[in-house]
Amino acid sequence: MQLSKTEEQLMQYLWKRKKAFLKDLLEDFPEPKPATTTVATLLKRINDKGFIDYKLFGKSREYFPLIKKTDYFSNHVNGLIKNFFNNSASQFASFFTKETNLSNEELEELKKVIDRQIKNQKKC
Q: Would you tell me which of 8, 54, 72, 112 could form a disulfide with 61, CB atoms 3.0–4.6 Å apart?
């Protein structure tokens, strides 16, 4: 299940804080800040989707993520590869390296990352 852009934005704030009350998350939004009821609705939707949970402190809820940011991002990228690149990581890599205008330095760094991963997989 995916999050909407506004839900993702709210999750970014929660991942950064690790746990937060509604008022804390509201502070993270840039001006003009959304209404408290809007953020509360977003939190309910994200909770219903299983991405977050909360602990009650009296009438206040302290929210915390149930999914790590890296896991969410990994699932998102894998979905992109599956849906837009015929489940081909090499097609995705080709598109990414051509369409993002990476510098030679950035391409060299990507090559080192890939070489390290190949080396680590050979060890296993």
A: 54
Please report, for residues 49, 74, 86, 112, the alpha-carbon distance to residue 90 in angstroms, rounded to integers and kept in the order given. Answer: 31, 16, 10, 16
CATH of the domain at 26: 1.10.10.10
Q: Which of 41-50, 71-80, 84-93 has the highest mean pLDDT?
A: 41-50
Given strand 60-65, what is the order of strands in its sheet?
Answer: 20-21, 60-65, 52-57
Model pTM above 0.85 = no
Structure tokens at 9: 């934005």
For residue 36, what are the domain limits?
5-65
Is 107 within the bounds of a domain?
Answer: no
